[in-house]
């Protein structure tokens, strides 16, 4: 099970320069949408045929809500160990007044961000674009933004204190910023990470299916190389005859507005639809081995509800339009920690998960260092004592010697300092 929510796995990132010729129409920015939908039955047609996802069965109930003052230990025991979604109202400040398009363009318009087509696809082409250009186009063109939030923006972005201490603090993977306009639909999917999704402006509607850990074949699922699961179902025009299981799958719902957050555990199937101008922050966290108890030694009794995002210790950061490990000095303990993060709740680290992690880490480095050890080289060294070369056990990763880890440490160290080397060569 991979613990890294990559931007879009198997995607090709391109640079583009586009000019808005004004030929497209402004998107519908209506926020007053009925949800859950009022179902329409026709005797001659299956319920919800060629209608959006959610029309095929009545919703069971809203997602459970809990207090903003919830203690981290309670959150861990009820929702992490319990594998349950939960909503929090007013957990983060709304940024609709501060983060206007003109403000974002003026202050952060020079930053490079990644964008994609408005409706997510299993395999998509991500585009690397100056933030300013995106802001000029997204209200008209078929685009949305999803990018690891650049360091320059973190001081103005909130991080809920609930997940910034104890067991959670060292399992923060990456904060992803989403900006869209109009009606924007995600695929039906299940991430390999725990996610806290917070709306900073606008509105998002969530469908949460009660099919965790079942992976029904009749939802036409595709497993990505990062462990995520996606369905090929067209969420705007559902074929209710082909996917008739949807008539029998219970689902729950949540509507988030400015300041609201929703926790979605790993491998909980869900689908999201944004309305109007929407800005959201999703914080991806490594799933926890729930056999272990919560460690909250550094959790305050009365913490602030949120702190700036730059106070969080995330695994990944965004620089020069590319994902990088956040730490600048990598130790043997760090390398072991990264490998254990990749395990999630599993007791085996599978080779394909490690290969994808290694590819992401060395994305820039392999273009400049032809002597770099390959992922297969490092995997062979790590798994030397294992009988099965397709996975490495948790016990092996915990006990592997520093000498064995050193080859991986050296590669990680070169990777995080690649831009320092660039400067020294000028």
TrEMBL record:
<protein>
    <recommendedName>
        <fullName>Cupin-like domain-containing protein</fullName>
    </recommendedName>
</protein>
<feature type="signal peptide">
    <location>
        <begin position="1"/>
        <end position="18"/>
    </location>
</feature>
<dbReference type="InterPro" id="IPR041667">
    <property type="entry name" value="Cupin_8"/>
</dbReference>
<dbReference type="Pfam" id="PF13621">
    <property type="entry name" value="Cupin_8"/>
</dbReference>
<feature type="domain" description="Cupin-like">
    <location>
        <begin position="174"/>
        <end position="281"/>
    </location>
</feature>
<keyword id="KW-0732">Signal</keyword>
């Amino acid at each position: 099970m991979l613990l890294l929510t990559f931007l879009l796995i198997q995607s090709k990132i391109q640079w583009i320069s586009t000019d808005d010729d004004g030929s497209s129409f402004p998107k519908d920015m209506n926020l007053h949408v009925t949800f859950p939908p009022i179902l329409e039955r026709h005797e001659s047609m299956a319920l919800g045929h060629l209608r959006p996802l959610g029309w095929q069965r009545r919703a069971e109930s809203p997602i459970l809500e809990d207090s903003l003052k919830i203690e981290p230990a309670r959150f861990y025991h009820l929702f992490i160990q319990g594998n349950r979604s939960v909503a929090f109202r007013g957990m983060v400040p709304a940024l609709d007044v501060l983060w206007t398009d003109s403000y974002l363009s003026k202050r952060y318009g020079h930053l490079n961000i990644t964008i994609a087509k408005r409706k997510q696809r299993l395999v998509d082409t991500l585009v690397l674009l100056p933030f300013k250009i995106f802001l000029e186009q997204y209200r008209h063109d078929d685009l949305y933004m999803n990018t690891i939030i650049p360091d320059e923006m973190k001081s103005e972005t909130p991080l809920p204190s609930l997940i910034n201490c104890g067991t959670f603090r060292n399992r923060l993977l990456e904060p992803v910023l989403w900006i869209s306009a109009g009606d924007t639909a995600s695929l039906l999917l299940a991430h390999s990470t725990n996610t806290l999704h917070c709306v900073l402006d606008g509105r998002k509607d969530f469908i949460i299916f009660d099919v965790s850990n079942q992976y029904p074949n009749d939802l036409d699922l595709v497993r990505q190389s990062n462990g995520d699961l996606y369905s090929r179902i067209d969420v705007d025009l559902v074929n209710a005859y082909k996917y008739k299981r949807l008539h029998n799958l219970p689902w729950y719902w949540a509507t988030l507005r400015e300041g609201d957050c929703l926790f979605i555990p790993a491998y909980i199937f869900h689908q999201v639809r944004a309305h109007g101008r929407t800005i959201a922050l999703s914080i991806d966290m490594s799933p926890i081995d729930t056999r272990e108890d919560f460690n909250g030694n550094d959790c305050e009794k009365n913490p602030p509800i949120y702190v700036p995002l730059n106070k969080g210790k995330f695994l990944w950061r965004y620089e020069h339009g590319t994902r990088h490990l956040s730490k600048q000095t990598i130790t043997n303990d760090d390398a072991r920690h990264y490998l254990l993060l990749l395990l999630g709740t599993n007791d085996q680290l599978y080779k394909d998960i490690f290969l994808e992690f290694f590819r992401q880490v060395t994305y820039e480095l392999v273009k400049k260092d032809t002597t770099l050890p390959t992922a297969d080289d490092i995997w062979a060294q790590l798994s030397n004592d294992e009988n099965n070369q397709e996975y490495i056990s948790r016990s092996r990763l915990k006990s592997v010697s520093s000498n064995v880890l050193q080859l991986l440490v050296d590669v990680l160290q070169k990777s995080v300092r690649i831009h320092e080397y660039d400067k020294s060569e000028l």
